[in-house]
Design goal:
Layout: E1 2-3, E2 8-14, E3 21-26, E4 32-38, E5 44-49, H1 78-89, E6 103-104, E7 116-121, H2 131-139, H3 141-148, E8 152-159, H4 166-176, E9 180-185, H5 191-197, H6 205-220, H7 223-232, E10 239-243, H8 253-266, E11 270-273, H9 287-297, E12 303-306, H10 322-326, H11 332-345, H12 358-370, E13 381-385, E14 391-396, H13 427-434, E15 446-451, H14 455-463, E16 468-473, H15 480-491, E17 495-498
Parallel strand pairs: 5-7, 7-8, 8-9, 9-10, 10-11, 11-12, 15-16, 16-17
Antiparallel strand pairs: 1-6, 2-3, 3-4, 4-5, 13-14, 13-15
Helix pairs in contact: 2-4, 4-6, 14-15
């Protein structure tokens, strides 16, 4: 399958505190498309998507709002959106030069191997003002699944409900039978104040909440959609209120009382989004008090607090890379601020991608060490690794140093005074004895070993402070000694994890 290649890459940026990645593109009509990939869900990728190239709705809590700009709010075209989603999901593609020639999908390497994807319209723009693009994206869902190899895709959007398009969204979702969660931006229970914070919203608070409740009721009627929700969410409730507490703006006792009245009436879950400060607006310190009051007065209501990931690269709703939208009015100071930010967060992905992982490297060292063993029946290797990924020591099963291997009987049969069992030192113990550094470094270390340790080795492992064992084989799991070893590890809180095998790695001594 071919992949379109018309977008120009403006940069890939990473929040190194949580791994969030933002990809920024420019379309042929010079519009910006800013997509963020979140890694905060263990079993699911989340892409935060825009619906417009620019937003002029004027929300006071948005980092993009600037009254000096006079730009139109241009909807993003579906072909540009699909290309941006594919490129933001994969390594290297964002760095390719734009071309009229399509790309072969065989070159794609997705950033993760997760099977589920959530497409969340929480970026630049207002989703209810570009429902056409969302509808077309849903229709072309199979195309994304085929190219990116996701088994399931769900949707979400954040909206201020600026008009009555919720009815159109209801029709779209119920006819398409997709799981689409609506996050309603409330931010104030009072109409006049909310209109000041979100000046483009033309609906009252109660009108918006009534539309939200209607959406929830209509969607919940459909059993197929309810089941789809359960694949992606802990509950199948398709709506949620978002509220950002801002100091001395919307966090008073009166605000809290009115919010409680609304929640009692509409019974809609609420999530408090921690504010990423902009301008003179500061984050409130009233969150805990609000959560305690609401949970006390409305038992059973779902209440969440949330710090959006990617804070340092502006990944959440209302937080964007202002430079790309404000270039015409940017001051020298603002431009220098952007350059410094770019140096700190921009990443390049033209490095080799098929390198082995840390676990593969360390287990590979253990396997290679086992090749030094003279034991004709069982060769075992071990590798001890510090908490900061340094190899501390290696070892393999063999005789004590003073014993000549050629004069030693390696047989398993016969009297224990004659066979190997009473003489051979196991790989795990050898790796510990071979370590000549500061013994404090063994505390919290990880042991990679090709065969699950016996009970005697387990005692050495625990005693020296190793806290994790990664093993390749557990072929003697039915033996009493192995059971005792696992009991020792469980009692001493030492984790033991089976190594997940990958394809064979060939080592060649030919010149590199």
């Amino acid at each position: 399958m071919k992949v379109r290649n018309n977008l120009k890459n403006l940069g890939i940026f990473k929040d190194f505190t949580d791994g969030t990645i933002k990809s920024v593109f420019r379309s042929s009509n010079q519009g910006v498309i800013e997509i963020t990939l979140l890694f905060n869900k263990p079993d699911m990728d989340v892409l935060c998507l825009p619906t417009h190239h620019f937003c002029n709705l004027g929300c006071k809590i948005c980092h993009l709002t600037n009254n000096a700009l006079n730009k139109r709010m241009v909807p993003i075209e579906i072909d540009d959106m699909i290309e941006a989603i594919i490129k933001a999901s994969c390594f290297n593609l964002a760095d390719l030069s734009i071309s009229t020639e399509n790309l072969d999908s065989d070159i794609l390497k997705r950033r993760t191997e997760k099977k589920k994807l959530m497409l969340s319209f929480m970026g630049v723009g207002e989703p209810l003002l570009n429902l056409n693009m969302i509808e077309n994206l849903i229709k072309r869902e199979s195309e994304l699944k085929s190219i990116l190899h996701y088994s399931d895709i769900s949707y979400a959007l954040a909206t201020m409900i600026p008009n009555d398009n919720m009815s159109k969204l209801i029709d779209l979702v119920t006819q398409s039978k997709v799981a689409l969660k609506v996050h309603f931006s409330l931010h104030s229970p009072y109409d006049t104040e909310r209109a000041h914070l979100l000046p483009s919203s033309k609906t009252t608070v109660r009108e918006a909440l009534s539309q939200l409740k209607k959406y929830s009721d209509r969607v919940f009627e459909n059993e197929h959609i309810r089941n789809e929700y359960k694949k992606f969410h802990k509950s199948n409730i398709p709506v949620e209120i978002h509220y950002t507490l801002i100091r001395d703006v919307n966090d008073s006792q009166e605000h809290l009382n009115e919010v409680i009245r609304l929640l009692l009436e509409y019974k809609i879950p609420i999530k408090f989004i921690r504010f990423n400060e902009t301008g003179d607006l500061k984050v409130s310190n009233m969150e805990n008090i609000w959560v305690m009051r609401i949970s006390g007065q409305i038992p059973g209501l779902k209440i969440k607090t949330y710090s959006p990931p990617g804070k340092h690269i502006g990944s959440s709703c209302g937080e964007f890379t202002k430079h790309y939208y404000h270039e015409e009015i940017e001051s020298p100071e603002q431009y220098n601020e952007f350059i410094n930010w770019e140096k700190e967060h921009k990443i390049y992905e033209n490095y080799r991608k098929d390198f082995i992982a840390w676990d593969e490297y360390y287990m590979g060292v253990a396997i290679l060490s086992s090749k030094r063993s003279k034991d004709p029946s069982t060769q075992v290797g071990a590798c001890i690794v510090s908490s900061d990924n340094r190899i501390l020591s290696v070892g393999y099963n063999g005789t004590p140093n003073a014993i000549d291997d050629e004069r030693f009987n390696w047989s398993k049969e016969g009297d224990r005074l004659e066979n190997k069992y009473a003489y051979v030192i196991h790989a795990e113990v050898n790796s510990i004895l071979n370590f000549k550094g500061n013994t404090n470094e063994l505390s919290g270390a990880t042991l990679y070993v090709t065969l699950f340790p016996c009970n005697e080795c387990a005692k050495f492992i625990v005693q020296c402070g190793i806290k994790k064992v990664v093993y390749l084989s557990d072929k003697y799991h039915k033996k009493r000694e192995t059971g005792v070893a696992k009991n020792i590890f469980d009692s001493c809180r030492v984790k033991y994890i089976k190594f997940t095998k990958r394809n064979n790695i060939q080592i060649s001594y030919e010149e590199i």
